[in-house]
Amino acid sequence: MQQRIIDPVDGIYAATPDYVHALEVRNPDRFLFVSGTMGLEPCGRAPATLSGQLDLIWNNLRRILGAADMSTDNIIRVTSYLGDREFAEANQTARLTALGKRRVPTTAIVVETLQSDWLVEIEIIAAA
């Protein structure tokens, strides 16, 4: 599989250093579409803090990816659903930590979550 960042600079606003406008993926053998994943413990309880939930979300995503013989290196798209706009910076930091130096297309949307104790939900697309 080949990946190529598409980040035009003429006639469009600049992407900030934490994401890219687009990522071209050539010749993948398979895709993995992951449902919105919450920061829930195995018992279904959500920690009270945003950082606790973000840690669990990325741990849960790594487990899902691992079950598909993938890792965070295979992520090609991230969509975050935030319960409050004030969560944006912490969400960005958690994503950058999880992805290391890789930058992928990403969108963050402020929404009302289905459960009041769910502060953030993240869905991803991965390819291998």
Notes on the structure:
With 128 residues, the chain is α+β, with helices and mostly antiparallel strands. The protein has one domain (2-127): 60s Ribosomal Protein L30, Chain: A, CATH 3.30.1330.40. 23% of the residues lie in helices and 30% in strands. The chain is built from 2 helices and 6 strands. The strands form 2 sheets. The chain has a 4-stranded mixed sheet, with helices on one face. The chain has a two-stranded antiparallel ribbon with strand order 1-2. Helix 2 links the parallel strand 4 (75-82) and strand 5 (106-110).
Tell me the layout of helices and strands.
Elements: E1 2-6, E2 22-26, E3 31-38, H1 50-67, E4 75-82, H2 88-99, E5 106-110, E6 120-127
Parallel strand pairs: 4-5
Antiparallel strand pairs: 1-2, 3-6, 4-6
What brief labels describe this structure?
128 residues, alpha+beta, globular, 60s Ribosomal Protein L30, Chain: A, 2 helices
Q: State the shape.
A: globular
Profile the largest sheet. Answer: 4 strands, mixed
Beta-strand residue fraction: 25-35%
Physical arrangement of strands within the biggest beta sheet: 3-6-4-5
Short description:
The protein has 128 residues and is α+β, with helices and mostly antiparallel strands.
